[in-house]
Amino acid sequence: MVLIHCLQCSPFELVKMVALKWVCSPATPMGGRVRRECGSLRGGGGLVKVLGDGSDCGGGSGFPWFLPKEVEKIKDPFARNLAQRIERLPVQTGFSESCIMSSCVKPQIKSEMSPVVLLHCFDSSCLEWRCAYFLLEEAGIEAWAIDILGWGFSDLESLPPCNVASKRYHLYQLWKSHIKRPMILVGPSLGAAVAIDFAVNYPEAVEKMILINPSVYAEGTGNLAKLPKLVAYAGVSLLKSVPIRLYANILAFNGIPLSKKLDWTNVGRLHCHMPWWEDATVSFMVSGGYNVVSQIKQVRQKTLIICGELDQIVSNLFAERLQSELPNSIIRKIPDCGHLPHVEKPNHVVKLIAALARGDDW
């Protein structure tokens, strides 16, 4: 299919860009944070402190002001709860004179285990971790759900470049400013390419990696990088449409009721309502995107590959190929599961993440 190398990443993300085939065959931080210790518990890998931040963006007190108003329409309770936890942190990148207020979900616990940093798929957001995030906290994991530059809910009104180099450096500066310890970096689908690119360029920041249904063999955005801007914007505007997003959900999940797929469609396209989203997406598209094939054998971190056995988007054969090419890796398959195990089978994924964080033997 022509789309395989068109947009980057997996056919799951590419199906969102089928629109392109049809076309061409405010920004201030929330109030200051007051951090307080609320108690402690003992997780699976050592003493864990539970932290609060004194903000009003968690619990039942409402959503952060900067989220699109469409968040109110979402019914999924896990998505709503996680959305209430999203905040913006200052990240100095040098792209502009001021910091980029960058969206993420910060952990409420401090663990002796390495922090786990959760990336997301192409054109997605931290809400992708809605089903697994709270399970990770219950397991005593210090988890950060990060929005990659150009996607999610950051303040990008003064649009920075959204190419691979900018995404990589933004993540590094966020890590350097706020996380500050070697991390376990988790990347699903195209997020696996983001993780590999980052780990090779900043090995001191990454202790281990977890790659979920990794899409790492596409060679960038291909001919989409050469589209005239007018055509690119026309195609991108269709990317956020309900039919395209719903079709992606139908491909991605097995045995999910239509009503839930519709609601998850609204979750998956929420960030598309950000005023800068189209500009950022076009910026990424014309930049050429991720091509990490030559970097795979440079990875030195211990790596766990997770894949759903019923993935209709990225063949398990690619995960097996990746496992054979990564010097220090193993693969674990989840039965009766499609492209997004962390959404469809979160308990399985959390057990695997927790085991790696604890340092359990392969």
From TrEMBL:
Residues 116-350 form the AB hydrolase-1 domain. InterPro entries: AB_hydrolase_1, AB_hydrolase_fold. Coiled coil: none annotated. Pfam families: Abhydrolase_6 (PF12697). SUPFAM superfamilies: alpha/beta-Hydrolases. This is AB hydrolase-1 domain-containing protein. It comes from Xanthoceras sorbifolium.
